[in-house]
Design brief:
18 helices; 14% strand; eight-stranded mixed sheet; Rossmann fold; five-stranded mixed sheet; 40% helix; binds nicotinamide-adenine-dinucleotide; alpha/beta
Length: 427
């Protein structure tokens, strides 16, 4: 039963890249939603129907919800208790101690402690270390005497949607729910039943493990081709040819392509396993491989050109992955820092991110090295290659771990790449 003071169906605490699309999607399905964030600029943007970050279809969704009047906003976490369901979508970084940093969740929990009432549910949508949901339930039982699963409901319902695909995947990606006690799973399933995605009930710790291992799998999957790329350089072998040899007509799986593997989730979720791992160091090694790709690219350029000081180096891409404006934990920034420590003259172009960058032409004009740090669609366009061939220095080195133009070389001279360009029709 909903508490008597209830004025919304669901509150969402933390209107970030996970929380805002979720809050909007609930409202779009007809629920009365209260969105909570302590960032005044973010609240202003949402109030004015401006998406604070790019999400495919997000603007239209926000406009629709704005017109419906079903989303209210607040800066106070305690207001969340006006709804029957409270979903926490706060950030959960990791400390450099290889340990989850749950200060935001602890702070929200303490704010909510005095205002929660029987009949409400508290749902952790944030990614958390195994055991966190039981900790939250235990904390509420200890300090308020709730019987979790009977009079207050606590569950982990992890977000596994990739940024940029939210609107498409919220109705298709199975929704995992790990409820504490007898009835939490069932109560929380009523909320997520607003979406068409199948609901899979499990225990809280299995939900936590499933989420973090979804990301650990991706992070490790990309570390393998990245390590292979470095091995290939050592043996003067071509990583793309070796990958083709591995994958071609092989019936038992295959290896991914190399690239700069990072982002706010992959770079920290492994730590939630590593903090009490049975094989300490294994996932740290995965992280070290991915983290060393920028240095590998820099050193590869140095091996071919000598010192990089005073050379103009164009870095294409600041976002952590293709076609997003999200720069958080992007390895492009690390690459730039390393290049600047070589006293190179670094210029950057990225058509998506909020950080101001120069135009493609300006970045490439006279560049002696072009590094493709992010495989944005715009860069994969042959026109970008044509611009490099026309405007970069004659002997420009192009560093492209993504194989954007099918050249199948991590390090290639612009003159070699130019041969790949389609010849204009004659006459
Ligand atoms: N970004 C993704 O693609 C993604 C995907 C799956 C899961 N996750 C997980 O979801 C969680 C949220 O990630 P995110 O990328 O949306 O984070 P985010 O940093 O974009 O969003 C967090 C929001 O919470 C707000 N906030 C912080 N402290 C607050 C407080 N005390 N009170 C009210 N608001 C507060 C911030 O202003 C921000 O808007 C994390 O656990 C993350 O690991 C993220």
């Amino acid at each position: 039963m909903a508490p008597s003071q209830s004025t919304a169906d669901v509150s969402v605490i933390g209107l970030g890249r996970v929380g805002l699309p979720l809050a909007l999607s609930f409202a779009d399905r007809g629920l009365e939603v209260l969105g909570i964030d302590n960032d005044a600029a973010r609240l202003d943007a949402v109030r004015e129907a401006r998406m604070p970050f790019a999400e495919t279809g997000g603007e239209e969704l926000l406009e629709r919800v704005h017109a419906s009047g079903r989303l209210s906003l607040s800066a106070r976490v305690t207001d969340a208790a006006r709804a029957r369901h409270i979903v926490i979508t706060l950030g959960t970084p990791s400390f450099s101690h290889i340990e989850i940093d749950m200060r935001d969740i602890r702070s929200a929990l303490d704010d909510l402690l005095g205002v929660l009432a029987p009949g409400q549910s508290l749902i952790l949508r944030s990614t958390v270390a195994p055991g966190t949901t039981e900790f939250v339930a235990g904390y509420l039982a200890k300090h308020r005497g709730f019987e979790i699963g009977e009079d207050l409901f606590v569950a982990h319902a992890p977000e596994r949607i990739a940024a940029g695909r939210f609107i498409e995947e919220i109705d298709t990606l199975p929704c995992i729910i790990g409820g504490v006690g007898a009835r939490s799973g069932e109560v929380v399933a009523e909320l997520f039943g607003a979406f068409a995605a199948p609901i899979v009930q499990t225990s809280p710790v299995q939900a936590e493990l499933a989420k973090i291992w979804t990301n650990i799998l991706r992070y490790s999957n990309f570390a393998l081709p990245n390590l292979l790329m470095m091995d290939c350089e050592r043996y003067s072998a071509n990583v793309f040819e070796v990958i083709d040899l591995i994958n071609r007509d092989y019936p038992r799986g295959g290896i991914a392509q190399p690239g700069l593997t990072a982002g706010t989730c992959l770079r920290k979720d492994f730590a939630f396993s590593e903090e009490r791992s049975a094989a300490p160091g294994m996932l740290l090694a995965v992280s070290r491989v991915n983290e060393s790709v920028p240095l590998f690219l820099l050193e590869g350029a140095k091996r071919r050109l000598g010192a990089l000081s005073d050379r103009k180096i164009a870095v294409l891409g600041l976002a952590f992955k293709a076609d997003t404006d999200d720069e958080r934990d992007s390895l492009a920034h690390k690459l730039i820092r390393l290049l600047e420590r070589e006293l190179a003259d670094v210029v950057v172009h990225d058509p998506h991110v909020p950080t101001p960058t120069v135009s493609l032409a300006e970045a490439i004009d006279g560049a002696e090295v072009v590094v493709v740090a992010t495989n944005h669609s715009e860069f994969r366009d042959p026109l970008t290659l044509a611009t490099i061939a026309e405007r970069a220095a004659a002997d420009c080195l192009v560093v492209d771990p993504w194989n954007c133009w099918g050249a199948a070389q991590v390090f290639a001279y612009a003159s070699e790449l130019a041969l790949l360009m389609p010849t204009p029709p004659s006459g």
